[in-house]
Amino acid sequence: MSSVASSGDKEVQSKPGSRWFTQPFFLALLLAIATLAVYYPVHGYPFVNYDDSLYVTDNAQVQSGINWDTVAWAFSTFDVGTWHPLTWLSHALDCQLFQLNPAGHHDVNLLLHVLNAILLFWVLLRATGYAGRSFMVAALFALHPINVESVAWIAERKNPLSMLFFLLALGAYRWYAREPRVGRYAVVTLLYALGLLAKPQVITLPFVLLLWDYWPLRRMFASEPESDSGTATETVMPPRKLSWLVLEKLPLFALSAASAFMTMKAQRVGGDKVWYPLSIRLENAVVSYAQYLRDAVWPAHLAVFYPHPGNSLNAWQAGVALLFLLAITGLVIDRRRQRYLAMGWLWFLGTMVPMIGLEGVGYQGMQGMADRYAYLPFIGLFIMACWGLSEWAEQRHISPAWLAGLSFAVLLVLTAVTHRQIGYWRDSATLWSRTLQVTKHNWLAENNLGKILMSQGRVEDGMSHFLKATEIYPADPVSNMNIGTYEQQRGNLTEAIERYKKALSSSRDASLRFAAFNSMGRAYSDLGDTARAQECFAAADRLQRQR
Known about the structure:
Elements: H1 24-39, H2 52-57, H3 60-63, H4 68-76, H5 85-98, H6 102-128, H7 131-143, H8 148-152, H9 158-178, H10 182-198, H11 205-214, H12 242-248, H13 250-269, H14 278-297, E1 306-307, H15 315-334, H16 339-352, E2 367-369, H17 378-395, H18 400-423, H19 428-438, H20 443-455, H21 459-472, H22 477-489, H23 493-506, H24 510-527, H25 530-546
Antiparallel strand pairs: 1-2
Helix pairs in contact: 1-6, 1-7, 4-5, 5-6, 5-10, 6-7, 6-9, 7-17, 7-18, 9-10, 10-13, 11-16, 14-15, 16-17, 19-20, 20-21, 21-22, 22-23, 22-24, 23-24, 24-25
């Protein structure tokens, strides 16, 4: 799929006579303007009641701005169950510049997304020589609705921020590969390290660089004919053996291992978690891969949270999904001379592995998949689609005008869907109401919508959502805590205490446990049970000192 003639956009950057609207600078400018125009509504959106409080609005350390205490805290904390010091510092800088005005925080997210789209275009163009195809990949990345979550959600700053350094490292790697030097390799390593400090989702960069060696750089098996490579530039990279290419990336793999260690450590101490048997995790992973492919083509029912299906998946669902994935893999193997197909498919499969749920990372293992996880992996699918359709059109001598028209139509449809998806983020109530419309058994959506209604004074309506949440997930500590607070206010102290006990039995979150012990202590005190009240207050005091 290409927005300009697939046979005429080769090396346009080196042809002064090329039409002005196919020049890289114009295409990059068009990409930036289109992305800004589509996403501009987020400038007026508020913070949402999903992690924005943890990252910004209720985080005193972040709100203090950039200082040595914040830097030390950012590199030592495992708050929110992950280790991403650069992201914390990014939010702190936002607070220093914009205080708690959400417009500035949203604008930074959007700016990062625009920069990523332009960088993706530049990296592909420099590596392949195809302006039109590179532009279309970048445009799909910029305008596909699957990426709305990563841009419109302030707490997801880590996604576009880590992607920025990932793409810079990918671009620097080509610079290194043309003339390998220690200094150039150090630049790649530094950019990769910065990406990991923003979010460990980029942990697969060494694997991606091996794919990049295969195509489009063709450092691996470089003796195949140029016509089969899917690139328009002559090979200038010195060919290397696979073993040498792997050894070359050992320092990067060491960084990956260090990041994985920190991520697992943060997950262990970062709060509540649900573990599923390996068989269930494998079934969910296979089905999720197929669902991501569906969303790439038909992004109609996107949501901010997809509950983990647990043991509700049937064996036939996993079997059908596996056969579908194997069929695509077989097609890619059959068309192995079209290297971009193998590269794109393995990019998608490989970069999704850290987020596919095999280790239970993500929202503490309680979600099955997430739109934000596709931010990096979908680039592989976009490359497969754009290069594949362009070459198919060339082989059948289809008019470049028809191909450009089809590309424009696809982007127009995606833009309309993205605009609609962005609208669901205009406030928390709309976000969670939409989530309940497009998902089933969503205890988190019920709980968060309940909190919104309670804050609006609609107490009974809010309580009905908390009760639905506990019907779906009886161990949900947050809903039980909220119900306990409600019952305590109504004077039902025994019921309140039972809810607090349920919250404490299923939560390791220090803040929630502190609040539960305090509230339960007051309830026991009102019942005249001084001994148990003192036990609860003492437990709360111990937690307070630990914090």
